[in-house]
Specification:
Blueprint (H helix, E strand, L loop, with lengths): L2 H9 L8 H15 L2 H9 L16 H27 L5 E3 L3 H12 L4 H20 L2 H7 L3 H23 L2 E4 L3 E4 L6 H18 L5 H18 L6 H10 L19 H5 L5 H29 L13 H17 L4 E3 L3 H6 L5 H13 L12 H4 L1 H10 L11 H17 L2 H18 L8 H18 L2 H6 L1
Antiparallel strand pairs: 1-4, 2-3
Helix pairs in contact: 2-16, 3-4, 4-14, 4-16, 6-13, 6-14, 8-13, 8-18, 8-19, 8-20, 9-10, 9-18, 10-11, 13-20, 19-20, 20-21
Length: about 475
């Protein structure tokens, strides 16, 4: 029996109607879509200047700290994804979560003044709690408490969220002081023009049913950007964007920093002189956001891949949840913020990824990128994020599963969909739907259809929002 046959038997290709080529293409697609985290996570966590908080490692420069964090990001991601591949047999990618890393650096370490070692200790505690709760089935039980309209709305909300992230990276959507977001100056931005051309090229390939269309679009756009830069077009903007969004710096390669000993194990020091209440609140915040970010991603991507059962639940959800729990624990021990499932996994699922083989390919590519730490995300964001817009458009189709004629479904579902992109958080969108569901059901006299667990879940979200937005964290630490 050859390697291909062994992999087919282990991951159950026939059972999931897939093959090695499809799984490999799906894994490459997801990796390309999420590889930006190898650069973005270190850039977010490392402190630069006096304005924001983050890691300051004594005796090491900012550049060295960034490269150490890149190595840790890769290792933590690979550890979680390997568990996803061999234990859960699901095609999901995991890595340190966006938003959670910003909360770690800017709020906990920066605004609250908590040492980064103590913040890592909070991440490790959160991860251990996740492992215990997952092992006893508590996390899967809570996910099953999600109201049906919220489950069916998560995929569409994530689709809008993905599209927003993609359009921002492409320069199509920009911030605006008057309207929050606005259309970028496309005609003046060579990067945006190239990204738009690449997007339509990718959409055309996808519409024609070309296998690997998303990968072809991403790589084609990247090659076009390099070619135009070498030809002298774009006034240097394409080259500058290629550098700043990908971390592509030839000059840094010989000086790559692979020694992570200053970060690994630093969480142990973080347990010293811990103030119990403030530490508990920090753990609570990490726990809550990560719990529902991962839950939302698994349900949303699971819906896109047809993994959900007739009740809208992901079968054996405890297994992919364990991958998230182990990844968070390992990540905190190595020196990075909370690891979570990535919505970019939808890119690989749409390419046909159905088993842990897809995850295995993602993990291998993360580990291979260790060889090229400064080049790890050489695919520029304006190219890689084309995938997010394409998948965002596709995932909008999930909205048809919602009964819009029933307001007790339409209101929670609508809030879930709208709040996700507007607050830049999967967890907040889920919270809006969960809190509104029992209220609306009770208002129309259908309170008997709301379980005690759903009321408790809604109440827990209210408490979370109070802790997160009332300033209690700042006052407690102060």
């Amino acid at each position: 029996m050859g390697l291909a046959d062994t992999l087919a038997d282990y991951f159950g290709f026939d059972e999931h109607d897939t093959d090695l080529r499809t799984e490999t293409v799906a894994g490459i697609t997801t990796f390309l879509a999420m590889s930006y985290i190898i650069v973005v996570n270190p850039a977010t966590l490392a402190k630069q200047g006096d304005e924001f908080g983050g890691f300051v490692v004594e005796g090491y420069t900012y550049a060295e700290t960034v490269q150490m964090l890149a190595v840790v990001t890769i290792l933590a991601s690979a550890a979680a994804i390997l568990v996803m591949a061999f234990y859960a047999n699901r095609p999901f990618g995991l890595a340190p979560g966006l938003g959670l890393n910003a909360f770690f650096a800017f709020t906990v370490v920066g605004a609250l003044g908590v040492p980064w070692q103590t913040a890592l200790a909070a991440v490790v505690v959160e991860g251990v709690l996740f492992i215990v709760l997952t092992a006893i089935g508590a996390r899967e039980y809570v996910i099953k408490l999600f109201p049906e309209p919220v489950k069916f709305a998560v995929g569409t909300g994530i689709g809008l969220f993905l599209a927003l992230i993609g359009f921002q990276a492409m320069g199509v959507v920009v911030t605006d002081t008057a309207t929050a977001v606005s259309l970028g100056n496309l005609a003046q931005n060579p990067v945006a023009i190239l990204a738009i051309v690449g997007l339509f090229f990718t959409l055309a390939l996808y519409a024609r049913g070309v296998t690997g269309s998303i990968i072809i679009g991403i790589l084609g756009t990247t090659v076009a950007g390099v070619a135009l830069t070498l030809a002298g077009y774009g006034g240097g903007n394409l080259a500058a964007d290629f550098v700043t969004t990908s971390g592509f710096q030839w000059s840094e390669l010989p000086d790559a920093q692979y020694d992570i000993t200053p970060l690994a194990g630093a969480f142990i020091e973080g347990f010293q002189n811990v103030e119990a209440l403030s530490f508990a609140l920090i753990v609570f915040t990490f726990f809550f956001v990560d719990f529902f970010d991962t839950a939302g991603t698994l349900v949303g991507v699971g819906q896109a891949g047809g993994f959900l059962d007739e009740d809208g639940d992901l079968p054996d959800a405890d297994k992919p949840l364990m991958a998230d729990a182990i990844g968070t624990t390992v990540g905190g021990m190595l020196g990075t913020s909370t690891v979570t499932a990535y919505i970019e996994s939808a890119a690989g699922v749409e390419e046909g990824g159905r088993t842990g083989m897809t995850a295995l390919v993602i993990a291998i590519l993360f580990l291979v990128s260790l060889v090229f730490v400064p080049l790890a995300a050489a695919i520029p964001q304006y190219a890689s994020h084309i995938a997010l817009v394409v998948i965002g458009v596709i995932m909008l189709g999930n909205v048809t599963g919602i009964d819009w004629n029933d307001l007790t479904y339409a209101i929670p579902a609508g809030l879930t969909i709208l709040v996700m992109p507007f607050t830049y958080s999967i967890a907040y969108g889920i919270a809006a739907g969960i809190v509104s569901y029992p209220i609306v059901k009770t208002a129309v006299g259908e309170y008997d259809e709301v379980s005690v667990g759903q009321w408790l879940l809604a109440a827990a979200f209210v408490v979370y929002f109070f802790v997160r937005t009332s300033g209690i964290l700042q006052s407690t630490v102060a």
